[in-house]
Amino acid sequence: MIVRVFPNSLELPLERLGAVPQVGLAAATAASLLLMNYGSKFLYFQF
Amino acid sequence: MRPFVLVVLLLLALVVMVNGLATWDRARHEARIARAAAAFQPGLALLGYRDTDERRFQKARLAVIPRPRIVAFGSSRVMAVSTPMVGAAPGEFYNAGLSGGSPEDFIVLWTTLRDRDKAPEAAIFAIDNWTFNRSHPQVRWLAWADEVARFVDTQDGSPAWGGSWVPLVLYRWYQVKDLLSFSVFRSSLRDLDRLLAGRPARGAEIVRSLGTELIDARDVDGHRALLADGSLRYETSYERRGPNEVRADAIDLAVRLRGGLGAFAWDADRVRRLGSLWRDMRKHGVRIVAYLPPYHPVTWDLLRRDDGAMAGLVETRVALEALAAGAGASVFDLSNPASVPCGEDEFLDGNHARASCMTRILSRIGTRSP
């Protein structure tokens, strides 16, 4: 059900998406990349 | 396709730019602190030390002083140790003690020296009697958690595999990777916000103190001051407190705080960290002498009737002796002031010894030149 409603991003027909959905998807992608790298060991101390 | 790629690249570039800018500003600020720290020359005294970030200050000082022959590590209980007390020539001794200093602090201070090829010949460690008691909070070192983790993670500070370039390459990789880290991004935004709001950067008070509160050491005039060898001179009003006032402190330390040994909960992680530190220091040829500092006689009399506290202290001594045996260090348990010996009038409060007692401690552990 989840897969049918929210298809994997790799299966999204990117070239057929409109500009606005593409921008939304791009923002989500950038945020994901950032959050994947959440912790920091070096530049700053994080509690 | 094009809007997607463009927006992803733009957003990531924005994050890299913000993080890069904040990192650059921080490096510039650290360089400013280092320049200010270098102005603290022998013969001068710093008055405003109490209001500065001691950890940042000591790290900056260790980075700029010439290689010392002897370095003292410890908490406030070692801070009064000075060059004449050790019997060293000017410039040969540095006191890296700081308030609430714990083995984790010593790790960072040591690596600051080691990484600049300034390993001393000998290191004196004043290990607080409550160091391995989790119930006695010692959290100031957390400001250095990353550096401590890096030291511990890389097995005594150097990897077991690869050449000497491996840690450097890894370190650079992690630094670059952090330019795209969310937590770094949040910190960068906070730093930039601070900058834009016109608030001073963290550690700016050190630059300010070193710029305006450095005076001739002969003009200290009874104020609390830090000397260029890192030693602390107490204010006259504190040194002149009467025996009753000091005894009240000593009783309070024993009764209310149980000498830092109450509800003793063993901190095995800290023991391991101290062991790693000592092994790394020995690898670099540093002679290590450690001691558990004495309590005020009244505090000690009360504490030795406290079975829980004594059990913690014995466990601490045994662990230190085992670490010392493994690392080729010497350890002295001087918790009992009679073992030095230091009298009641040789303490400023329940656990801070006066100069006469400190000098005797240094003779007792064999780190004082005649």
Describe this structure in words.
The complex is a heterodimer of chains A (47) and B (370). Chain A has 47 residues and is an all-alpha fold. Chain A has 2 helices and no strands. Chain B has one domain: SGNH hydrolase (Rossmann fold, 3-Layer(aba) Sandwich). In chain B, strands 3-2-4-8-9 form a 5-stranded parallel β-sheet, covered by helices on one side. In chain B, strands 5-1-6-7 form a 4-stranded antiparallel β-sheet. In chain B, helix 10 runs parallel beside helix 12. Chain B is globular, with a radius of gyration of 22 Å. Chains A and B meet through helix 2 of A and helix 1, helix 5, helix 6 and helix 7 of B.
Query: What class, by secondary structure content of chain B?
Result: alpha/beta
Task: State the shape of chain B.
Answer: globular
Along the chain, the helix and strand elements of chain A come as HH
What would CATH call the homologous superfamily of chain B? SGNH hydrolase
**Unreliable stretches of chain A, pLDDT < 50, 5 or more residues?**
43-47
Biggest sheet layout of chain A = none
Sheet with the most strands, sense and barrel status of chain B: 5 strands, parallel
Features:
heterodimer; A: 47 residues; mainly alpha; 2 helices; 47% helix; globular; disordered C terminus; B: 370 residues; alpha/beta; Rossmann fold; five-stranded parallel sheet; four-stranded antiparallel sheet; 9% strand
